[in-house]
Amino acid sequence: MSPADRFRRLRRLRRPAIRRRVRAAVAEELLGTPRSLAVVCAFTAFMFAVGVGYYTPTADEVPVALWPLYADSAVAVALGGGVLASVASAVWRGGDITADTPTSRGLAYLHTFAFVWLVQFGLWPLVSLNLAFGEYVAAPDAWIYYWGVIGTHLLFVGLALLFPAFGRTTRGALAAALGLGVVNAVVDYWVGYHPPLLYEPGLGLAAATLVIAVGSVALASRSFRRLDPE
To answer: Where are the transmembrane segments (predicted)?
Structure first.
């Protein structure tokens, strides 16, 4: 295949209909059978356990009511697990994941929150860890605390990008997700309950977190079909 042909194929991915078909095919491959869904669920459960283990040693320094905002990565994975649970019945019956997955207003909020939270905190380590790149790569366990964290968090994004194949969103869900992202940034950087880092974050990380939050909501708005088409 010539470079020109490859470029033309990539350009076709800019069409929403093409992107939907590609996303549906990937979702069907990874989530469309009980066995493949079980594998993804098992790996999601593993990532959740790792996240809980990361936040547990410092959780007693944070008010219990703020734990969902403090342990943001673990919560993102838990929301993703909730989305996977919502498609399990359709997959178990042998249905088409893109056509037979149930939809409702409550599920639209779950799909939207999970997508935004997974994308936001899947990308967040790319900024937060690289702001202190030297400290993280020089740490004794750099293969875990730098490469491992970035690698697993990018998988958050990959998981989230499957959800628009069968999920829906609403204006209310998008607005609520954006508001939650702003509240999370306030709790992290103004109140001071940010995730454990090897340095004290400043204005740069706070601003980047807000930008990522807004971008994640914008991506959700573009990726999901509306529950109530306008």
So the answer is: 37-55, 75-94, 106-124, 144-166, 173-191, 203-221
Strand pairing report for 168-169 and 225-226? parallel
Bridge partners (DSSP) listed for residue 169: 226
The secondary structure element, H or E, covering residue 215 is helix 203-223
Place of tokens 């998988």: 155
Tens of pLDDT, residue by residue over 42-82, are 999 999 999 999 899 999 999 999 999 999 999 999 999 99
Alpha helices by DSSP H, listed for 93-202, are 97-100, 105-128, 133-137, 142, 149-160, 171-186
CB atoms within 10 A of CB 60: 7
The label of the residue with tokens 């209310």 reads 172
Q: What whole-number distance in Å separates Cα of residue 24 and Cα of residue 96? A: 10
Residues whose CB falls within 8 Å of the CB of residue 12, separated by 6 or more in sequence, listed in order: 18
179, two tokens: 């508001």
Confidence of residue 14 (pLDDT cuts 50, 70, 90): low
CB 227, CB 168: distance < 8 Å: yes
Q: Give the tens place of pLDDT for each residue, 91-124.
A: 988 888 888 888 899 999 999 999 999 999 999 9
Largest distance between two CA atoms of the chain: 58
Round the average pLDDT of the chain to a whole number and report it.
Answer: 89
Q: Are 128 and 146 in contact (CB under 8 A)?
A: no
